[in-house]
Amino acid sequence: MNEDRLMAFVGKAVTDLGTMVNGSLIVIGDKLGLYRAMAGQGPISSTELAQRTGCNERYLREWLSAQAATGYLLYEGEDRFSLPDEHAIPLTDESSPACVIGGFQLALATMHSTERLTEAFRTGAGVGWGEHHHELFEGCERFFGPSYRSFLIQSWIPALDGVEAKLHQGARVADIGCGHGASTLLLAEAYPESTVVGIDPHAGSLDAARKRAADQGLGDRVSFEIGTAQDFGGRYDLVCIFDALHDMGDPAGACRHILSTLAPGGTFMVVEPNAGDRVADNLNPVGAAYYSFSTMLCTPNSLSQDVGAALGAQAGEARLRELITSAGFDSVRRVSETPFNIVLQARA
Prior knowledge:
Elements: H1 3-31, H2 34-38, E1 44-45, H3 46-53, H4 57-69, E2 74-77, E3 80-82, H5 85-92, H6 101-111, H7 114-123, H8 135-159, H9 163-169, E4 172-176, H10 182-190, E5 195-200, H11 203-215, E6 222-226, E7 236-242, H12 251-261, E8 262-273, H13 285-303, H14 317-326, E9 331-337, E10 341-347
Parallel strand pairs: 4-5, 4-7, 5-6, 7-8
Antiparallel strand pairs: 1-3, 2-3, 8-10, 9-10
Helix pairs in contact: 1-6, 3-4, 6-8, 8-10
């Protein structure tokens, strides 16, 4: 027994314990606007924060101390705390690709399913996406939305061969697994000559997407339909899947069906987590987050469907290429990437 190694691991476990509990406190801070009230304000006391937010001072005093202990806030002395600008952006600015606040809402909603997933580990049963806590769906959009808003129109679409010009002229687009429609609405807004259809099996998410389309005045060129990647209808110049191919029970069947819906010269755009091809390549903080989400969400969702391929969120580019080409696509190339995503273009 190496005592130093033992105590180092105990230290890591205690750190992770604090991090786990702090996740709930981060969601509370987000919901109550505490981070936003502190952003750009310099050192602040619990009394001042209570005055700005209308929250109870005693709760805030403890919350501020916990946030300082985990490094989210700085303790400035004399019971005053500050939120550095470099921390404020990830916690408050949902227009920035560095914003991760939605991930905590997603993670906390995921943890509500712990008891059910414990039983699923024993039985091998799946747990469908729509069976999780209701905040999962908003948290998912808030987690991925900042990257889509920062990169989809600005760099991902322009990187696709021949696609941007078609969209400006007027194309038919399908966004499969659209959720609340973050990517769908971005495409509809950027390319007014095109028509965009968002397709998802979760009715509640589609209701939210339709409301957002109406609120943004996009109802005339975007629509939302319930369906899956294996059964949606129509003919399209561009079919997109954003961070959802690995969640599907039969991703190979989905790719085959998508190929059958593409118009001549059409493109299949696949956005997936940026992962290496080997487990050893993914033993890093991003891999830790994605393997955890994959264990709790993606793999159970796939196992709840026919085939149950359970590709996993860290499948890696080689497996994705093999999957897509085996479905009949002649070419697959990586056109763009971010720290969290890779973007592939597949063509027949």
